[in-house]
Please model this.
Amino acid sequence: MSILFQQPLITLVLFLLASFSFSLILPSDRPETIRFFSLVVSLVALFLGVLTCLSFNQSTGFQFLFRLDVLPQYNLGLTLGADGISMIFLLLTLFVFPVCFLSS
Model:
């Protein structure tokens, strides 16, 4: 459980992936359910993004670094991290999504 608080970007990405996977099993004949679910997920993601931004230390460079070696024999991996500018864009994106879902 402590890895979720030490790596808030991974927590956010895993939450969004799990929500997307769950949205695939929602009934397509009830669009109001899909809209409500999307709005709730976007608001929770916004809350997680705000918590991530609050735990960001502006005096250092990249933070929340996460590296996953996918195929080490081909030097293929996934690296995820954030700096000050990417935190601003993360919050902007997470703020725009609930607004879009509310306006649709």
